[in-house]
Write a structure and sequence with these properties.
The protein is of the alpha/beta class. The chain is 42% helix and 15% strand.
């Protein structure tokens, strides 16, 4: 005959509720009591199955994380670290769903209410439609955004203001006398071709707005996001009549290798060309890149805690947070050498 939770409680000399709490929330049980329960469970070869916990609590203890890129990318890896640091101790697993196009995103939101196999959905860095979000809202499944759009479609969200951040970075270059500035970015495609909108694409708006405010004709180079990004960027730069005095990159993963390659070709950074990035990778700090700082680990941990509070019916404040922009000023930027001829 198989032993049950009542047998464990009797053997340990505690209540059934204490046994249940020991398995589901061990951090809430005193160490001495926890050890008694676990010893009794081991002696009786007993375990509380996940399905039993789900049945009792009405939860799956599973979080869906929707990403577009590889989980090993800088942002996704650090964001996951932050999410897991909060969800894992609370007994939750995180499952990845790779969303490539708006069609695969739509299919996810259509099928999830049928399966009802997660307690919350986290969307990272791309857009959703309000109609898709309403499917989950109607079922009481929180949908949470990290640098995702539009903010008001989510139950909870945390983000940086990509447009504002790049606007400030461009103003920094302009304040140092730069007028011949090139922005290098990955293209965004119209929604009607089935592509997703990404928060990083908002950065080009900030660049163009800052240039237009000072009467500067914005110069934008769009390159494919593939393994040849630096070669593509250099080819486009060398195709110009002259090199710019400053280069503003959409992200550090482009800016860092670009700085290295430009130096190999004899360009001095920042004496000949100022270069900026966005994200603040470890490699950006190593080469002294001026960049915009964001902390996906902290963002993931913060939104995970708010998600747990929401699931536990606790008040969540703020439900939507836009973090302040922080530029890290290092030595890849400098005043233009001759403002009168730039």
């Amino acid at each position: 005959m198989r032993n049950n939770i009542e047998d464990v409680a009797k053997r340990a000399g505690v209540s059934i509720a204490t046994v249940s709490r020991t398995f589901k929330h061990p951090d809430l049980v005193a160490a001495k009591t926890r050890n008694k329960v676990m010893d009794a469970a081991n002696e009786l070869d007993f375990s509380i199955s996940r399905s039993a916990s789900v049945f009792q609590a009405g939860r799956t203890y599973r979080i869906a994380l929707l990403i577009n890129d590889r989980s090993s990318t800088w942002f996704n890896a650090h964001m996951y670290e932050g999410l897991d640091s909060v969800f894992h101790p609370a007994g939750y697993d995180i499952t990845f769903s790779h969303i490539v196009t708006s069609d695969t995103r739509r299919a996810f939101f259509e099928n999830l209410p049928i399966r009802r196999n997660v307690d919350a959905v986290v969307v990272a860095s791309f857009d959703i439609s309000r109609q898709e979000a309403s499917r989950l809202h109607s079922m009481g499944i929180p949908i949470v955004g990290i640098n995702a759009m539009p903010q008001d479609a989510f139950s909870l969200s945390i983000s940086i203001d990509d447009e504002k951040a790049m606007h400030l970075m461009t103003r920094h270059l302009i304040a140092m006398g730069h007028r011949d500035i090139v922005f290098i970015a990955f293209p965004s495609k119209p929604e009607n071709v089935g592509t997703l909108r990404f928060s990083a694409n908002e950065r080009s708006k900030g660049f163009q707005r800052a240039c237009e405010e000072r009467g500067i004709d914005p110069s934008v180079i769009l390159i494919p996001d593939d393994e040849n990004i630096v070669d593509n960027a250099l080819t486009r730069l060398f195709d110009r009549d002259h090199m710019p005095t400053a280069i503003c990159c959409q992200q550090d993963s482009l800016a860092v290798p670009l700085v290295t390659r430009l130096q190999q070709f004899g360009y001095r950074i920042p004496e000949d060309i100022s270069v900026t990035g966005f994200d603040d990778l470890d490699s950006a700090r190593q080469i002294g890149l001026t960049t915009v700082h964001q902390d996906p680990t902290q963002m993931g941990a913060a939104i995970a805690q708010r998600t747990l509070d929401l699931l536990d019916k606790k008040p969540v404040n703020p439900s939507h947070e836009t973090l302040d922009t922080q530029i890290v000023f290092r030595h890849s930027t400098a005043p233009v050498k001759d403002v009168t001829t730039s």
